[in-house]
Amino acid sequence: MISAIVYDSLTGSCQKYANLLSARLHVPAFSLKNAPVRSDGKIIYIGWLFAGKIVGFKKAAKKFNIAAVVQVGMAPVGPGSDEICREINSVPADTAVFCRQGAFNMGRLPLHFRLIMKLKNKDIVSKLQAKGQLNAQEQALYTMASTGVGQPADWNVDDIAAWAE
Ligand SMILES: Cc1cc2nc3c(=O)[nH]c(=O)nc-3n(C[C@H](O)[C@H](O)[C@H](O)COP(=O)(O)O)c2cc1C
Question: Which tens digit of pLDDT belongs to each residue from 137-163?
Answer without folding.
Answer: 999 999 999 999 999 999 999 999 999
